[in-house]
């Protein structure tokens, strides 16, 4: 049975932080999974980011029954600002991030709180995840094997899957001291934050699957994959610059640099590196390559990228119904080989 709720007048041990935008179909089960935790000393902040469905009403209905639930109604401001507001309002020393369409296993908070209590040198802990589909049934996606200890996470920082954002528990003061999430890295704001925290604290992933991550066709990782890949690559360049010089070239910028500005800002070869990272991510996304990522593909070919896999990309473009782009890709590859 879940522990007795803490008094809302005292500071809780954990703040569960959820930003909601039009998640009425999944919010109820998500809230239920938090309220069913075996660790009960938490507050549950649910920031409604200007939803046009019943999300806010659902959160308010749960708040009327459980004082740990604290809805926050805001006009539409976007995920990054919503997350920073959640961290600003958190009363607990630990924040557990949680998305409004996922499901927490009953022991999630207990396991993560215990780990951080036993490892005071660690500022962040996440966990392995399972996958569910839109209906809540198990999804066929193969499991992601994430690194578990800090050394393995550092080794995987550049390319590997590191942390599931919705499964992270982090010390509140660390995120505040780092300046929170940076809006310029939208769609990769979590990756940028992990890179900045990696030099400040130790991180870990629990081997247990303590969160069910919902896979939907319209989620950020599919809708904004081009921007996400680009911004993540630039975040890595900024991480490298901080390690080499102690300063962050992005710190004072109100927008990320354009592709043509990257070599000046980060050094020769930086733009080619970003294109490489983007194509690695988009190689099996012909619709993206034929559309908004088309200039990136041409630039990658001009960079002298290995041609064998790009010939296969031309075939995929053809099979996906983009014969013109397929021919243009083949011509660009042939010219590069000449």
Main structural class: alpha/beta
Radius of gyration: 22 Å
Overall average pLDDT: 94
CA distance, first residue to last residue: 70 Å
CATH architecture grouping of the largest domain: Alpha-Beta Complex
What letter string, H or E per element, gives the SSE order? EHEHEHEEHEHEHHEHHHHHHHH
CATH topology of the largest domain: Spore Coat Polysaccharide Biosynthesis Protein SpsA, Chain A
- The largest sheet has its strands arranged as 3-2-1-4-7-6-8-5
Percent of residues in beta strands: 15-25%
CATH class of the largest domain: Alpha Beta
Q: What is the total number of structural domains?
A: 2
What's the CATH H-level homologous superfamily of the largest domain?
Answer: Spore Coat Polysaccharide Biosynthesis Protein SpsA, Chain A
Largest sheet: 8 strands, mixed
Number of strands: 8
| Helix content range | 40-55%
Unreliable runs, pLDDT <50, ≥5 residues? 1-7
Shape: globular
Total DSSP helices: 15
């Amino acid at each position: 049975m879940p522990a007795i709720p803490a008094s809302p007048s005292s500071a809780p041990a954990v703040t569960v932080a959820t930003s909601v935008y039009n998640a009425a179909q999944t919010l109820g089960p998500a809230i239920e999974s938090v309220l069913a935790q075996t660790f009960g000393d938490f507050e549950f902040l649910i920031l409604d980011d200007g939803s046009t469905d019943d999300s806010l009403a659902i959160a308010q209905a749960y708040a009327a029954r459980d004082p740990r639930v604290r809805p926050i109604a805001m006009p539409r401001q976007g995920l990054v600002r919503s997350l920073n507001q959640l961290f600003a309002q958190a009363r607990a020393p630990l924040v557990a991030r949680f998305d409004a369409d996922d499901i927490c296993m009953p022991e999630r908070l207990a396991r993560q709180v215990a780990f951080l209590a036993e490892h005071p040198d660690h500022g962040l802990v996440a966990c392995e995840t399972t996958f569910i589909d839109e209906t809540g049934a198990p999804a066929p996606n193969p499991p992601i094997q994430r690194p578990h200890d800090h050394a393995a996470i550092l080794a995987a920082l550049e390319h590997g899957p590191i942390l599931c954002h919705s499964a992270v528990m982090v010390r509140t003061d660390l995120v505040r001291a780092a300046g929170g999430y940076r809006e310029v890295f939208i769609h990769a704001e979590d990756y940028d934050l992990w890179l900045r925290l990696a030099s400040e604290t130790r991180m870990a992933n629990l081997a247990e699957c303590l969160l069910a991550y919902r896979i939907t066709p319209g989620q950020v990782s599919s809708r904004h994959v081009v921007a996400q890949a680009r911004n993540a690559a630039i975040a890595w360049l900024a991480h490298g610059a901080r390690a080499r010089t102690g300063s962050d070239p992005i710190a004072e910028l109100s927008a990320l640099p354009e592709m043509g500005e990257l070599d000046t800002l980060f050094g020769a070869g930086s733009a080619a590196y970003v294109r490489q990272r983007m194509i690695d991510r988009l190689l099996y996304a012909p619709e993206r390559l034929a559309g908004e990522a088309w200039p990136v593909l041409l630039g990658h070919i001009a960079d002298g990228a290995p041609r064998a896999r790009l010939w296969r990309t031309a075939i995929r473009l053809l099979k996906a119904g983009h014969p013109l782009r397929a021919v243009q890709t083949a011509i660009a590859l042939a010219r590069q080989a000449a």
